[in-house]
Every structure is written in structure tokens, then in C-alpha cells.
Fold this protein.
Amino acid sequence: MKRIWKFFLWGVLLAGGIGTIILVSKGSLGGATQKGATGPIALDNRPTPAAVPVTVTAVQMQSIRRSIFAVGTLYGREEIPIYTKVEGRVRRIYKDVGDQVKPGDLLLELEPRDYELAVKEAESAFRSELAKLKLQELPDDGLDVAKMPMVMKTEAEVKNAQRRLETARSAGVAFPAEELRQRETEYETAQAAYRQAVIDAETMLAAARYRYAILQTAKQRLADTKIYVPEAQTPIPKLGAKNPIHLSEKPEFVVAHRNVKPGEMLRIMPGENNSLFTLSINNPLKLMVQIPERYKPAIQMDQIAQLNIEAYPEENFFGTVVRISPNVDKLSRTFTAEIWVDNSDRRLSPGNFCRVNLLSDTPSKVKTVPKDSVVSFAGVNKIFVVRENRAAEVQVKIGTTLVIGEGDSRQTWVEVEGNLKAEDQVVIAGQSQLYDSAPITVQQVKKTEIPAAKESK
């Protein structure tokens, strides 16, 4: 009996404890519901995030001279492939790779014997045509055929027949009719002979001119057996007074390639590149660089370019911009600038690889912020600005780096592009604790005096 009562009392106590827990829980939930909670957790009871103390400074507009970097390969100012105009066997080669040559220098000679014979044959045929015309030299195109001997002779016969006819007609009835008709026939025959003489003279004169053209062609082909250095044809632009280029009045070439051997039989094959030599003007040298279109306003004619050549790593070479393409390539979004590089000492060579630094002559106004204000993560650069007592995240693109001041006052600022205004306040301390729309408390506004900036990139 006692054991039964024990179990009974323990059950009553256990049931009462469970009921009390349920009532307390319902009361708590009911109170939350009355306050407007939508779930089992009371959201209104969350603690408000504490404002992050920060230091800010204003976005600064600074003037910079953009330093534009590019790479490229040097070429001769003018590169000329040399071809043969006539076929034949190479008799002698006068110049080889690396030789300095001037316009008019002899490069190569072919065997001339066949072409000398062709000249003699053409000259003989030409002289034969002149003999038919009874001339020693070919007259110019303005010659009147009536003054040629063969025509003048028939013209005299016409005049003689005309006088005889007029004499017979003036005698009247006293002159025999049969003889009158004979003199009329003689006059008509003389006129026909004159007209035929004019036609023959024009025909023979045309034949003589044709033979003369053949003779001149044969002489030209004979002359073409000797191949000379041509004149430079590239127009020289006007260069400013400060340009570092030294141009000679008669530029010299250098033999860059030789593709022919002594004794070789040269043939003219249409459609094939059969160049015998390649000549290059190596002072000045030419550099073609591709520059992003955003830098187009910064590139000007006569702008000085500094070059670094891998063959001379400790030296700087200088050139000047002589041409700027007016078009931007639609695929690469770049434009071409042509730079001439002084090579009066002949130390540089076509084919040299070089790095180019173009310093803009026109300062640009850009937005800058302290380098420490930029937060970088996973390749994304961002800064925080103050907007209505909260931090606003702004993604930016980093540009030129600027160094301001000297010694202990030295500061590093960076050019930024993004959704920024010149009057925006940028967080420079405390940004590691920030997120977009985070509440902030501005503890200090740092004012920065901007002396002359030195570009470091």
C-alpha cells in the first residue's frame, strides 16, 4: 500500500510540473504575438548594430601628366625590296649584307652580251627606216611631212605640171586639143603622186618612230642589267624644334638581306616574291605602337618618347611622334602612333624589341583617393564613402599612382574611376569593419593639402 501511494504522489507532482511549463510557454508566446511577432523568435528584440567610428577625407581632383607605356619592334624608316627587270645570269655582286649604300650605288650586274646585240639589231633597223626617208635623225612629232625630200620632189612636179597646163589653156584655140588633154592628165597624175608621197612619208615616219621605240627599249633593257640603289621616296614630316632626330639630306641605306648568288640565272616569275636585296634606311628607325583609345587625347605630334632597348638595358633612347592614325581599330580598340627614333650612331637595328614611355604634354584632371582607402578582394577594388551617415560601397577602377610630399609627409594617392563625385568623403580608417549601408560615426575629417604630385606608375 505504501509503495502504491508513493507512485501516486510522484505522478501528481510530475503532471503538475509539466502543466506549469506549458502555461509559462503559452504566456510567453502569447505576449510575443501581441507585440506583433510573426514567428517563434521576437525580431524586435535584436540589438541595433553599433556605429563604426571612421576617419574620412575628401576625393581630390589632381592634375597629372599621363605616362603611357607600350611595346613594339623597330623597323627601318623605309624598307625597299629590289627586283630585277630583265632575265639573265648574275655576272657580279657589288654589295652584301650590312653594307652602307647610297642612292646611285651599283648593287648587281647581269651578263649584258645578249642585250648589247639586241641594241645593235634595233639600231640597224632604225637607221634603215631613216635612210628611206633620207634623214639623218628622227624629227620630233611636230614635223610637217610636206617638208620631207620625197614629198617636196612630188610637190615640185605638181607645180611644173600646173604651169604647163596653164600655159596651154592661155593659148586658147591655137593650142592643139589633144596636147591640152595630155597636159591635164599630167597635172592630175602629179597631184595623185603627191598625195601618195605624203601617205608614204607618213607611213615610213611612223615605222621609223616604231623602230626608234624598239631601240630605246633595247637600250633600257641593257641598262637594266645593272641594278642601282634607288632614291628614298618616303615623305619626311615636319619635326618640331625639340625633336631628338638628326636627319641627313641624302639618307643612306643598309643592305638588310641578299637573296642572290653570283652565277645564278635570274628569271621573272609573275606572282612570286623574287627580291634580290632588301634595303633599309636605318636612321631614323621607325616604331609602330598600338595605344588604347582612352589615351588618344594625350598623344600629340612631336611628343617625345623614351625607349628602353633590351640590348642596352642601362640606357635610354629617345624618339618623337611623327604620325597618329585618325582611326581606332574596332576589334582591339586601339590606334596606331608612328615614332621615329634617332639612330645616328647606328647602334640600334631594325628588329630590336623595345618598351616605350610616352609622357603626355597636356595635364589631365583626375579623381584621386588615398591608396589606403582602397579595399581589394578577389580582384575587385572598392572604397567606402559617406552617404547619410552610412557607408556606401563604390567599386572603382585603379589608374595612375601618385606620390605627394616628401619625407614624413609623403603620401600615396591613386587615380580612380567609378561612381564618385569630387565632394565625396572617402573612409581612410576603419573601413575593414564596414559593409554596404553600415552605420558609421565620423570621428575625424582629415584635410589634405595637395602639393605637386609625382607620378610613380
Q: What stands out?
A: The CA atoms of residues 31 and 220 lie 116 Å apart. The first helix runs from residue 2 to 34. Residues 18-43 have pLDDT under 50 and may be disordered. Residues 2-45 form one domain.
